[in-house]
Amino acid sequence: MKPVRTRFAPSPTGYLHIGGARTALFSWAFARRHGGTFVLRIEDTDVARSTPEAVQAIIDGMQWLGLEHDEGPFYQMQRMDRYKEVIQEMLANGSAYYCYTTREELDALRAEQEAKKEKPRYDGRWRPEAGKTLPTPPADVPPVIRFKNPKDGVVAWDDQVKGHIEIANGELDDLIIARADGTPTYNFCVCVDDWDMGITHVIRGDDHVNNTPRQINILAALGAEVPQYAHLSMILGDDGAKLSKRHGAVSVMQYDEDGFLTEAVINYLARLGWSHGDDEVFSREQFVEWFDLDHITASAAQFNTEKLLWLNQHYMKLLPAAELAAKVQSRLAARGVDTSAGPDLEKAVVLYVDRCNTLNVLADAVEVFYKPVTPSPELLAQHLTDEIKPALADFATGIAGVAWEIPAISALIKETIAKHGLKMPKLAMPLRALLVGQTQTPSVDAVIELVGRERALANLQKYL
Ligand code: GLU
Fold it and tell me: What architecture (CATH level 2) is domain 377-463?
């Protein structure tokens, strides 16, 4: 087998969305799996919609995902001379020709075809054929250049995802490959690029299936080896509708902002339309080792936010405490929360990670340890009853002298409730409310230990 060369070829008209990220991931993984080369190509010929910000967003997104390219980025706008050169060669060897049909003539042609219930298509009036006399080119019409598509036979390929696809050449008219102003058109540029870049496997979204027969014909006319194609089915949202902005976080960087880990997103994307037996949780390295085109599903993949959250929590739990704390710390710092004066953040994240599925949720949860605690009036009214105050006062006295470790604090709580004839929640709830301002927390003894003796005392005494 020839060395594998894949490419990711985004059009920089917006951020890197989930569908694009999956295409990039699969192309990258296939190259890595086979010790090949992964090329990044920016398809920026739509100048009205392409922006440098979008290029940057794509590069940032790929970097965040850890999808390093080996070659590029190549920009199509910087390859215009090359496309024009190839067009000249095609004109010279007869695989392309000038077409002087005006817009008005094309409109008239279309109206005629529609009236006859025919598929609108260019009728080949300027197409050179043996024995055919072409009209005299009008002086005032700048011509477009068309590809001389084969007239007969079929164009076929074995799509690595969708199986055998073929279409009669008679269905394809002669594609414009250069506009009247000389600029080459999209499908043509893709062909020249895939050829020049030696791409062996084109892995892309199935919105390009319709372009493939045209591209194969052009590649064949260029004398280029036709790559393998693998067209990935679309991704549906949680609700089964085509994934779109209204499904929320569709930009890859939005996942970063929302507190997802790269590992989780990669693992998640890998399973969006590809499988390895029943494996749901696997590392990037395993994915590269296992990835193949045979196990990409031909049907649409459905997004499942719950599963992504579950994976994210799984990877959060796997992180060494120091790393998890560092990630949470930077999120807290961005909110203006200073963690230096409070309890050990590593301990806090370890205590809370079991109940948090994103870094943001974890930051929300532990933030209370680094900010003044102000229990809401409702919380106070509900839990700080006169009946409980003597027990709280006893507990406060107790913590002034207790050994500062979870078992000792736990023993003190038990002692206090026994002495006052209370059930555990009667004391635990007000303690939570006063010490962290919320009643949903991990085990109360661990929370108190984390709060620290001085701060715990100060917070309790404020209300006694
Ligand atoms: N630029 C195209 C897109 O963003 C991809 C073209 C291709 O992969 O061939 O949809």
Answer: Orthogonal Bundle (1.10)
